[in-house]
Amino acid sequence: MDKTPTSNERVLLLGGLAYYAQDEQIRLGIQRYRQKTNTPWRVLDAGHSWKNWNQHFERYQPQGIIAHILDEETLNRVTQVGVPVISLSRELPDLDLPYIGAHNRMVGRLAAEHFLERGIRRLVVYSTWSLNMEQERIKGFKERSVGEEGVEVFRVGGHSFSGESSLRGDMSWTRKNWMKQIEPPYGLFCASGDLVAGQLCDLASSLGLRVPEDVLILGVDDFKLMCESCIPPLSSIAMPGEEVGYQAAACMDRMFEGKDADLPSPLLPLGVTERRSTEAAAVDDPDLRRALRYLYEHASERVSIGSMVRELNLPRRSLQRKFMQILGRTPLEELYRRRVEMARTRLLETTDPIYVIAVECGFRDAESFSTRFRKQLGVSPSNYRKKHRV
Fold first, then answer.
1. Residue 270: CB partners within 8 Å, gap ≥ 6?
2. Is 153 helix (H, G, I), strand (E, B) or coil?
3. Cβ-proximal residues to 145 (8 Å cutoff; 6+ apart), any chain
4. Domains of the chain with bracketed CATH
5. Are 336 and 376 in contact (CB under 8 A)?
6. What is the Cα Rg of the chain in Å?
7. What are the tens digits of pLDDT across the range 186-238?
């Protein structure tokens, strides 16, 4: 049974958080702030149930609330308590509460960029629930892709963008052959998150579409258990959940002291965690497709472009030209890009020393790795890890 809070404890109530993916990271961020600042807080997690919320309100009289405010009923309940409230969602258009969360429009832009970097010229964005979060991701996807020369963009699951290609008719789950109406190869971004993206992987397989050869599928949240259970493993955009939680706790602490919340700007996504579902192989040119597959599979090894063209028996100059024409970068730049992405994931998911990560991701040493990492991501590996690692 929960103990009654002591006189010097402040009670913080968490509401509406799920127990996976980004919401779990938010909890970790709040805990990290408590440990760093040694704040005397009792953190109560009410989950989704209003019965739990009401019990916590009555028994513990929380001095602050951090919650997903998704509807007017939730808003009315939390504001009636008369304590500081921070919202983790922006679903209500006229929400007059402090908000801390991810920059969802940048999530959409990053998704489109991920496909365009791979030479994919036919792009699809899918959403299920029409949440504001999804719509912001779709807007970002549109901003980055619509208008690009030679690029077709399709919107499935809601209203089509004006001025872009669209699919006619019912495109809901009740008519599941929409994936076959789009000519492969194409990139499919699921703005609804990894759970739905995993269903799209299954749907593609049931329709005889190969992932990633015919359809590259990208999710959001980087819910590791879900992503690695998909067939094939799902690439996903890693979200700044822990930083959201940390900043929410810091703002709440200031509000407890009667100060301004001093809200941060929406937090940028951490990047794409690449797995098999968006492996850079879905291009029309067979030589480029073979080369990309080779670089993807051997990036962590001490390979060179010369050894690649010899092993694949490909003309080097012709291949260089195809890389530049289709991807806008050289084979060597693509190899470095892949290595940096592998290292970025290792920095977030392990405590391995940077020099170990550098060598195991194919770099000669830590110095060359740091130079390339900074060039690609604009920050040193150590600072990136310090800011983002769970």
1. 222, 237, 238, 239, 240, 348, 388
2. strand
3. 112, 115, 116, 123, 151, 153
4. 10-101+241-267 (3.40.50.2300), 104-239+272-278 (3.40.50.2300), 286-388 (1.10.10.60)
5. yes
6. 23
7. 999 999 999 999 999 999 999 999 998 899 999 999 998 899 999 999 999 99
